[in-house]
C-alpha cells in the first residue's frame, strides 16, 4: 500500500494483463505472416475424464482438469494445437498386449448406457457395484474401456502426426496412465501401455529403425521394460525411487536388458542427483542409440510436493530434463517427440509441472 493506504495490486494486475495481451497480439501477427506456427499439440478427450476408480482414488479425473486449468492460467494454451484423441484399434493394442489382457479390460468393464453395442461386457458383479477390481489399486468403471482406448489412441495419433510432419511434438493429456501395464495384464492404475503401443506403432507401421523411451515417473516403468526386453530397436532410459512400487527395475530384469538404462535412486533425491544421472548415464546411451523418434512417459510424481513419492524435483527440473531430451531429438530424430502423461497426484504440482514440460516442448521460453 502507498502512504494514502491505496493498494497497488489492481495496477500491477492491469499491467500484467497488458503485457500478456501484447504477447498474444505479437504471436497472432507472426502467425498471420507465417513466422510462427503451432508445432506442439495437446491430445486429450472427455472420455479420459469419465474413467474413475472411486472418489478416494488419487488417479482421478481432477488431474486432467488441473492440467487444463494451469495451461490456461499460464496463457500458453493459445499457442497449442488441441486435438481429440481417437480410440486405438484392437490391432494397435495387440502389438503390445496379449488377447487375454485386452479381453480382461473389454469384457469386465461394467455395462453402460453409452455402450455402442459393439463392445462386449460380461460381469454382473461389476454392473451392480459400479466397479470391477483388477487389483488392489486398479479398477474399471463403465467408461474405462473407452478411456483406455482413447489414451492409447492419443499416443498413436500423435505419433502419426509427428512422423507426418504436421507437428514437431505432442503431449497426450490422457488417463488412465500406462507404464505399469504389462503385456499380459493391467496393473498399478494402468490398463494399456500407451507409450509402448505408440513406440511399437512407430516401428511396425511407420518402419522406424530405432526409437527411445524416456521415463521420469517416480515409479519404475516395469510394463514398458517388459514390453521391449528383447527389442534392440528400443532404448529405455529412466530413473525411479528405489526401493518403491512396483519393486522392479533394480533387479535381474534390468541387468539382462542391454537396451535399458534404468537408474534407481534413493528416497529424497533431488534435482541435483537426477541432473547428474541424466548427463552421465542417459545422454551417452541416447547418443549411442541415435533414436529416430523419442517417446516420453511423463510422470510428475517425483515432485517434492507429491505425497505418492518421496523425491524432491521441482518444475525447473522437469523443464531441464525436457530440454535435454529435445536436444537429442533435434540431433537424431528431426525433433520428433511424443509425450504421454503418467503419474502426478498433487494437483497443483502436477499442473505447474506439465506447464513447464509443455512450455519447453513448444519453445515458449
Explain how this protein is built.
Helix content is 42%, strand content 13%. With 365 residues, the chain is an alpha/beta fold. The chain has one domain (41-98, 111-117, 141-361): Histone deacetylase domain (Arginase, Chain A, 3-Layer(aba) Sandwich), CATH 3.40.800.20. It is globular, with a radius of gyration of 21 Å.
Percent helix range? 40-55%
Give a short account of the largest sheet.
8 strands, parallel
CATH class: Alpha Beta
The CATH architecture can be given as 3-Layer(aba) Sandwich
Sequence of secondary-structure elements: HEHHEHHHEEHEHEHEHEHEHEH
Mind sketching the topology for me?
Blueprint: H1 9-32, E1 40-44, H2 47-50, H3 62-74, E2 81-84, H4 90-94, H5 99-108, H6 124-129, E3 132-133, E4 139-140, H7 144-163, E5 169-172, H8 194-204, E6 211-215, H9 222-227, E7 234-241, H10 252-255, E8 260-265, H11 271-289, E9 293-298, H12 315-332, E10 337-341, H13 347-361
Parallel strand pairs: 1-2, 1-5, 5-10, 6-7, 6-9, 7-8, 9-10
Antiparallel strand pairs: 3-4
Question: Outline of this structure?
Answer:
The chain is built from 13 helices and 10 strands.
What characteristics describe this protein?
8-stranded parallel β-sheet, 365 residues, 10 strands, 13 helices, two-stranded antiparallel sheet, alpha/beta, Arginase, Chain A, single chain
